[in-house]
Amino acid sequence: MSTLLSRYQVADNKGCTQRITPTSAHWQHVGFEVYELAAGLSIEFAVSEDELCLVLVAGLATLTTPHASYPRIGERMSPFERKRPWAVYVTRGDSCRVVAETHLELAVCRAPGKGTHPSRLIRPQDIGAEARGRGNNRRFVHNILPDTAQADSLLVVEVFTEEGCTSSYPSHKHDTDNVPHETYLEETYYHRINPPQGFCFQRVYTDDRTLDESMAVYDRDVVMAPRGYHPVATLAGYDNYYLNVMAGPVRKWLFSWEPDHQWINTESYANKA
């Protein structure tokens, strides 16, 4: 199995089903966890050097930081409802307690923090929604924590891709610290598949092919993209959702297209589609 693929694990005694750390991923910035909690259960996140973005992938919860409480937030019971999510940004130096009000699927996005911005609630109306692409390269995006929002390191976005379509495509990369042309950003993909017995494909590869991994990705798996291009392809009958977490030394999403496939963005493809 690829070292870039983290398979879904049955929840441990804290409800954790995925845990990616900078050490386990062999990089420096991004951490990512998923918790599945039954109604009434709780989990606490202690003060750390990281900033967090807690995303309610599915279910309702009450979240409490040292300065505020957000009772019974959430709306969707499945990410495939395509409603914009609720989330909470937790600054470095703040703790947070989460109590599940229903069965809860909680994503915990981590990156080094500076404590520049206060903890806050991110409501659905705070999240930009947009359609991207066309034809068989169409997808729908929720910008939970884009580079225009306040944070020290984290970039967080979720993407819905319908059956038979590609996403994170044309192939692009953000593995070079070359502002203003490109930024170095590590990235995780937390995948959900509907219906859940299906799978999608993801490839992670570099121009020189020293990294070239193609993976069959199942429901609740995580793919790590330390460098290179990282497109996703769905299969007939199965829709795909993924939650992306990115972070690097510069908090800006600047990327480069793979030259061979950049033509997919042109009018010639639009007319064909």
Commentary on this structure:
This protein is mainly beta and 273 residues long. It has 2 helices and 25 strands. The chain has helices at 22-25, 267-272, and strands at 5-6, 16-20, 31-37, 42-45, 50-58, 61-65, 68-73, 87-90, 96-100, 104-112, 120-122, 128-132, 139-145, 155-161, 166-167, 172-173, 175-178, 182-184, 186-194, 199-205, 212-218, 222-225, 232-233, 239-247, 256-257. The strands form 6 sheets. Strands 1-22-19-24-14-13-12 form a 7-stranded antiparallel β-sheet, with no helix packed on it. Strands 2-3-10-5-8-11 form a 6-stranded antiparallel β-sheet. A hairpin with a 6-residue loop joins strand 12 (128-132) and strand 13 (139-145). The longest helix is centred in the last third of the chain and has 6 residues, at 267-272. The mean pLDDT is 96.
